[in-house]
Amino acid sequence: MLHEQLTTKIISFMKIMSKTLLVLFLFLGLVACDKDDPTIVDPVELITTLNYTLTSTTGEIVSFSFKDLDGDGGDAPVVSTGTLKQGTSYAGNIVLLDETQDPAENISEEVAEEDDEHQFFFQSTVDGLTVDYSDTDDDGNPIGLSSSLTTGDAGSGSLTIILRHQPNKSASGVSDGNITNAGGESDIEVSFDITVE
Amino acid sequence: MNGQNCDLLILGEVYDSGTLAPLEHVNVLVSEKATGSVSDEEGNFSIQAMCPGSYHLVISHIGCTSQRVFLELEHDTFLTLYLDHSDHLLHDIEISSGVNHSQAQKEDVITDRIISDRAQEGLAVLLESVAGVNSIKNGRGIAKPIVQGLYGNRLTIVNNGVAQSGQQWGNDHSPEIDPLSAGKLTVIKGAAANEFMGSNLGSIILVESERIEKEPHLHGKLNYFLESNGINNGANLQIQKYSPKLAWKISGTFKKAGDRKTSRYFLSNTGSQETNFNLQLEKSISEKWKSELYVSTFNTSLGLLKGSQIANLTDLASALLQDEPFFTSDKRSFSIDAPKQKVNHHLLKLNNKYFFDDNTWLEFTLASQLNNRKEFDVRRGDRSEIPSLSLKQYSHFAEAKISKEFDDHWSIRTGYQFNLVDNTNDPETGILPLIPDYRSFNSGAFIVWTKELENTILDLGMRYDNIVQNVVSISNAIPREIIRYDNTFHNISSSLGVSYFLSEKTKLIYNLGYTSRSPGINELYSQGLHQGVSGIEEGDNSLQVEKSLKTLLSVITNINNKHSLEAQVYYQHIKDYIYLEPQDEIRLTIRGAFPVFKYQQTDARIFGLDILGTYYVVEPLSISLAYNYIHADDLANNLPLINIPSNNVKSKLVYNFLKHVKIGNKKLENLELEINNKYVFRQNRILISQDFVAAPEAYNLVGMTFSGDLQLSSNRLRIVASVDNLLNTTYRDYLNRQRYFADDLGVNFTLGLSLKF
């Protein structure tokens, strides 16, 4: 008999609870419409393109370009290279762009503004090919947006350009272009196959 | 003395709450009068010549958490008291003999005394004192618990009855819970999670607050700690007051640390700060209807080692060669710069419990949570103050539960739960989100039957969850478009538990559970470079539900009510186990080359052994030893699983000073000296091809703790002085992500003060 009384009590309480829950879930049902579209983010820091333009003393222009429009995505980057003349000096200039924007945004300007926090490093596997810095930041340390490239004998190999953010420019060898003790974070690391004729 | 009858007696008996044996040498002190009595070998005590009035009795005993009892003395009174005698186990873990929740489950409890003694630790590190529990870390400030190989999406942390809802998928996302707000932490291994909603494969961690003491006066506790490593400083204040109309308790915590230090150098930018606040209100609306409101807010800023901010594989390779990480400063700093995390977590919970009678109750809970997580990287162009990851997650939870005990020793508990999660990325970041925006609706129902026989308790539980996900992601390919996904998952779980008293001193607990877990949003839809781990992670939207079968057997025995031994073996097979598989592809981008990881499914198997024993050499001197072994494999690919702890041995020597020390006219009592050590074996099973570097070498850490209580009139002060890594050992731990870049922490001296008033 006690069980019956208890059961009726439970049932009536359950009825009240289910009615409350029903109201609650109806309310949630209204909220349960589809999630809004997200704002497609405008990537603000994206560098899609590095253009390294070399101008010889006689005015010849050789361009190297690395373009990766989808960032981390699976589309392969588009790399274009050129042929260099042996025994020649070239004035080099790096331009960084974000080509997802129209018109393309010039990121090298940002790098120049924060010149003390950036340095380019040039690593070549071509015999006799050297790159020297032609610019400095306010502390007298190199940046690398402007450089001078000198070729030796004919040969081939690769040229890797690395942009480090917040490197330790005063660590040993860094101002001479040796990346070993630089630290910091790589914002760019691209390789070009080079032929010197 | 106005004709008062000052010849009243307070008599009583004191028992050990675990073994129910009478406790000798228990001090029963009347704090208002500084007089008292000591219990005899039968646990009896008596206090004579008392005047009528209100008194606070302080009950204390070596190795027990002291208790305070409030008494309105009007006539001779007899009291029966139970003390938590916690000293027969390693690191003061109390073996719970199936107190609440599922009776036939293996539960390990961390009491509020341990939480208070180690106030400087976060939740995961506190839980490490339980056998079989480790933490996966990224520096000192970021740690997540791993229970028998399961963590993140596979381990639910229930905060005051509500499953913690945040970005649990991240290995460097600490649970946003303040252990100082808890009165008790419970680890339940096996398949006891039927009663709770949340993504897991059985094991759960319960964080519970204490009920407000039925004491009409204002009482509370003040905790203060100071750590030498990092100059980490913090305080927690709790105040509570009970009245039949409304009982309240408020608690606030503030912690601040500067750069930590290894044995040789500072870890630059590893400072942290935490500010938390809780409010608990309890009201008895009627004799049968109890209502509770719980509000909490947790706010933290965590610095990440500056030298760990690397981009591509070339950066990582050069960082791995460093003896000292890049950017190491020779001074400690308190500033927290990028890279860093800023997380806020707010919880609001309303709970109502209606007792039909002593055996039947109905419980209704409503809770909302907001988790706001921002992660900052070093960015170009003054953008370091704009987060690279900014996620806001709202969760709304409702639950109705009924529990009934029937006459013939069996009981039923059943309930229905609903959880709505809304997760949104803030476009302020200017970076494509790593996980997409989504909304999910989870409805679940469970039932647990428990039957008590003479020496046996049986329980059988079942659970069903229906999960609907509404995902809005941005495509990886150019041009970017919005792709919508709608998923439905069904998770079924079931468990059987048996606890059996083989004899009066020996108990066996067996558990068999089948659990399923639907894939997490990160596993399905991750896309992009996971900053700081130098890898591109990609989800797989065709992943299926994980299904696991786990079995556990525990033996718990005590010898002569003193020495004790506990052993547990477990075996778990997980079909369609989801993990991040390194691909052969090295993806070339303008930032350099990055390894690619894809979420895949395989068959996994985890098994292990946890043993723990305590032996009393002589009465005041005990030695405890623990050994943890775990072996986990990816069966389909014939490889070990990553992020599995290596085996370890822990030992502890504890000496209880039986005599107190006099300081002026006060007594420093309950003095205890502990020397401990932890030996961690090298994680030898991992292959070099599964990681960026070989696993670090084995290491041994030695520590020491000295503690005592001081009774100051009606307040009790507890002093705990400890040293971690006493020998300033240089080491790295496999589960600490910081090991790629730097050593782990050097010596650390901590002073903790806790005042109960």
Which shape of chain A, going by the Cα principal axes?
elongated
The multimeric state of the shown protein is: heterodimer
What portion of the residues of chain B fall into strands of 2 or more residues?
over 45%
Give the fraction of residues assigned to helices of chain A: 10-25%
Number of structural units classed as domains of chain B: 2
Coarse shape of chain B: globular
Q: Approximately what portion of the residues of chain A adopt beta-strand conformation?
A: 35-45%
Name of the CATH superfamily of the largest domain in chain B: TonB-dependent receptor, beta-barrel domain
In CATH terms, what is the fold-level topology of the largest domain in chain B? Answer: Maltoporin, Chain A
- Cα-atom Rg of chain A, whole angstroms? 30 Å
**Could you tell me the radius of gyration of chain B in angstroms?**
27 Å
Q: Count of helices of chain B?
A: 4
Overall pLDDT score of chain A: 85
Biggest sheet descriptor of chain B: 22 strands, antiparallel, barrel
Class from helix and strand fractions of chain A: alpha+beta
Looking at the overall shape, the CATH architecture of the largest domain in chain B is: Beta Barrel
**Low-confidence regions of chain A:** none
Mean of residue pLDDT values of chain B? 89
In total, how many beta strands of chain B? 43
